[in-house]
């Protein structure tokens, strides 16, 4: 499968970051917009990398990236990174996501997630493992499962 075939629908090359892709800016006021700019790229069969650029608006009272911001980034990484890693095209929902906080996330340093596709079943379940890092140091580890659904739900 070519890199282009593994990209999520609507992905475009990021002009500021060669080799990376993006969806552009998320709709203003949307929950996804709180993550800021998100990039992604295939990194070989079964692997992908996603990236955000945390700033001071994402910090908790202790000065680290808020756990909710990290978990949102990881959840979004399962979708964009999953597709880049070879997940079949389709509409998916998150069944579970487990995050371990193994280091402190800091503002001003790109936060990357390495997403590895473990297995996709014929029934539409997709299993992932991954690690987030800043400056080559692990900050979070995660597992996640997505389920392919036939009919996407639409907002009321």
Automatic annotation (TrEMBL):
User: Where does the source fall among the domains of life?
Assistant: Bacteria
User: Which InterPro entries does UniProt cross-reference here?
Assistant: HotDog_dom_sf (IPR029069), Thioestr_dom (IPR006683)
Q: Where is the Thioesterase domain?
A: 62-124
What GO molecular function annotations does the UniProt record carry, in alphabetical order?
thiolester hydrolase activity
Spell out the Pfam families in the cross-references. Answer: 4HBT
Q: What is this protein called?
A: PaaI family thioesterase
Q: Which organism is it from?
A: Sphingomonas sinipercae
């Amino acid at each position: 499968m070519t890199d282009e075939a593994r990209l999520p629908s609507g992905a475009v090359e990021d002009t500021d970051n060669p080799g990376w892709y993006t969806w552009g800016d998320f709709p203003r006021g949307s929950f996804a917009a709180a993550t800021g700019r998100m990039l992604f790229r295939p990194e070989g069969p079964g692997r992908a990398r996603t990236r955000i650029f945390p700033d001071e608006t994402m910090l908790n009272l202790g000065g680290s990236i808020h756990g909710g911001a990290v978990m949102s980034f990881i959840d979004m990484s399962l979708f964009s990174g999953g597709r880049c890693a070879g997940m079949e095209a389709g509409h998916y929902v998150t069944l579970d996501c487990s995050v371990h906080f193994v280091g402190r996330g800091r503002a001003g340093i790109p936060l990357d997630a390495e997403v590895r596709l473990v297995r996709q079943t014929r029934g539409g379940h997709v299993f992932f493992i991954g690690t987030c890092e800043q400056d080559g140091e692990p900050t979070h580890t995660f597992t996640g499962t997505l389920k392919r659904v036939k009919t996407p739900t639409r907002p009321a």
